[in-house]
Sequence to fold (104 residues):
Amino acid sequence: MSADVMDNEPFGPVALMRPFKTLDEAIEQANRLPFGLAAYAFTENARQANLVADALDTGMVGLNSFVISMPDAPFGGVKESGFGSEGGPEGLDSYYVTKAVHQY
Fold:
């Protein structure tokens, strides 16, 4: 069974849930789409939380929290959900001009 909202990037207050048998299956399903703005995971296991955060292909991850946007933190997505970040020190990167100078 499939719902359209499970295959598109929804913008709005939508809570999507899907059962899974293994952590690998959950990560595979979360990363299968070409979108990657934000993801949320809830667990009592700190090691598992770190594994999930590292494995998710998203710009932002909320672990045991829905709060992912802070003034001092970068905000942005990956894949078709955006390129780069705004806010926080990382938001200044697009204003930098990097120059490599090599002298012998």
In short: The first strand starts at residue 35 and ends at 36.
